[in-house]
Amino acid sequence: MAVARKYLIIGLISAAAVALPVFIALSQYNSLPFSPFSTPSPSASTKELRIALVTDAVFTDQGWGTAAYNAGKSLESKYGYQVTFADHVEIADIESTLQKYAASNYDLIIAHGYQWGDPAIRVAKQYPNVKFVVFTGLVKANNVASIFPMQQEGSFLLGALAGMMTKTNVIGYVGGDEYPNVINIFEGYKQGARMVNPDVKIVGTYLSDWNNPDKGKEAATSLIKTQKADFLLHVADTSGHGVIQAAENNGIYAFGAVGDQSNLAPYTVLTSFVVDIDKSYDGIVQSVVNGTFHGEIFKPGIEAGKGSPGDGIVFIAPFHELDDKVPQNAKVKLQELIQGLLDNKIQVPERESPTS
């Protein structure tokens, strides 16, 4: 994510398959710019869209970038549309990259990352017939929409889980950089931990580097060795791989980000917060084809599980191999917290907003 993300719950209680309604925080913002499960019009299956998916992340990071790439490939397989991919775009080259694709008559440009917002606004003025979507953006115009997921609703539950299971009473986090979405994720993590454990200590650091596993490992090792953290949440792209490695090397648990990252270390990654990017991109395409696209900032929150009805796009991954390591009383408490979110009795507010 060299861009901020960057970025209900099923599987947290493996024995239960509960159909949960959607909880969307901060109602002053709209839901997604589409009805994700509306039936496409006849033209949706025949009109050929030219789509560009661009990001400063890398598509091989097994997190933020990989999730975007897989969502783009899903569009190709589902609709047969042409999707052009470009990753690892330098920040200095963002505006020229958008300009290139807009001038090449692309119908839709999906810019995957926070820092693409202002350049998208500038380029969009020159190409009013091109639709731009900034994922984790905070900008809008007639032909520019942003999707800013309420990922802190997912990290809230991760924090609560860590707060209940910590043995040192210290939990930690490592971020790629201090972007609004990342700050919100860690604030949700803190809120969840403190709700179940008022005495827990939360320590963390930012790397100013999204693609440096060695740097992530070094920072995480310091939190473990000097601060005694025994749970770590990363939001740091490939730098986060180093965080997970440090957790594995030191026998503590880590949480994944954006995608289900259990495969990186099956006996270390307890669970992950996941962003349902497939669902989001699919809805964007439907809105363009059906003529319902409009420029707004959309803030979708929790969904019951991947692809569930409703506008939510954030959920928590299963415990997989570590299910038996989670105490039953922690699972019961998590279920109570989930219900509190669904009933709007628990709020996980943004700490960083578009105006701050």
What does this structure look like?
This protein has 356 residues and is α/β, with parallel strands linked by helices. The chain has two domains: 42-149 and 277-298, 3-Layer(aba) Sandwich (Rossmann fold), CATH 3.40.50.2300; 152-275 and 313-342, Response regulator (Rossmann fold), CATH 3.40.50.2300. It has helices spanning 64-79, 94-103, 117-126, 152-165, 180-196, 213-227, 239-249, 277-290, 328-342; strands spanning 50-55, 82-86, 108-112, 131-135, 144-147, 170-175, 201-206, 231-235, 253-258, 269-275, 297-298, 314-316. The strands form two sheets. The protein has a six-stranded parallel beta sheet with strand order 2-1-3-4-5-11, with helices on both faces. α7 links the parallel β8 and β9. It is globular, with a radius of gyration of 19 Å. It starts with 49 loop residues before the first strand and ends in a 14-residue tail after the last helix.
